[in-house]
Design a protein that fits this description.
elongated, 116 residues, mainly alpha, Na+/H+ antiporter subunit G, membrane
Length: 116
């Protein structure tokens, strides 16, 4: 049963990493590519690390603190770094995709500038 659970986590992690890679290649602009890269990579790496943790625990009786720290680190840093990179792209006037409907960050900045 444990082997099935480990296999499921490995397959889910691999699926998310593969779908993120395809998203990076297929999506039209920087912002959607960053979304694919950060969300999918975070879930993919976390899934593989969870599978490794479960394997080590049930096969060898080892509770790996390094794997737990790795999972926490990836879950905390990848979304924040993706947000900061997209914010930097927006601040340097990288264009949105031509079919984007709205730019809420731009409208918020304009509203704040009008208040001042």
């Amino acid at each position: 049963m444990i082997e099935i659970i480990i296999s499921i986590f490995l397959l889910l992690g691999t699926f998310f990493i593969l779908s993120g890679s395809i998203g990076i290649l297929r999506f039209p602009d920087v912002y959607t590519r960053l979304h694919a890269a950060t969300k999918a990579a975070t879930l993919g790496v976390a899934g593989i690390l969870i599978a490794a943790f479960i394997f080590l625990y049930f096969e060898n009786g080892i509770i790996s603190g390094k794997l737990i720290l790795g999972i926490i680190f990836v879950l905390l840093t990848a979304p924040v770094s993706g947000h900061m990179i997209s914010r930097a792209a927006h601040n340097t006037n990288v264009d949105l995709w031509k079919h984007s409907v709205r730019d809420e960050l731009k409208s918020d900045r304009e509203a704040n500038n009008n208040k001042k």
